[in-house]
């Protein structure tokens, strides 16, 4: 992930604002919030602007995923070219869904909030849809998870925790 983020930062630096770079990186699946905070660190951004840009960018696609992914997957499954992608994504998302299945919306929050590989707003949204969770309530818990994950990643990336421990 580091090399992808570095490539994006290098390609876009000087062409658009640092905040916009962080915003765009946070919208990319797999990179999401963790990648955007890494980009902010590479560009020596301060905590607050990078946190806001990362959270907003990470959240922008989520309502669309919650509302339209089932229709998109249905279309893709009928396509000769894309028919395998929805099954693969569903299988991958469901393999990471144990805590959501066990704890419901609290599990969804925790899944998004704890910034580990394979977790995040995109996968959390997909799992919420696959489990038939209510979109508005899912959006709230995903948003709270993104806020928390952003805070955790920012504290770690900006060395605030290191300063508190020392």
From TrEMBL:
- Annotated membrane-spanning segments are 20-42, 48-69, 105-133, 139-161
Q: Name one Pfam family in it.
A: Sm_multidrug_ex
Which keywords describe this protein according to UniProt? Membrane, Transmembrane, Transmembrane helix
UniProt keyword annotation of Disulfide bond present: no
This protein's record includes keyword Ligase: no
Its protein name is Small multi-drug export protein
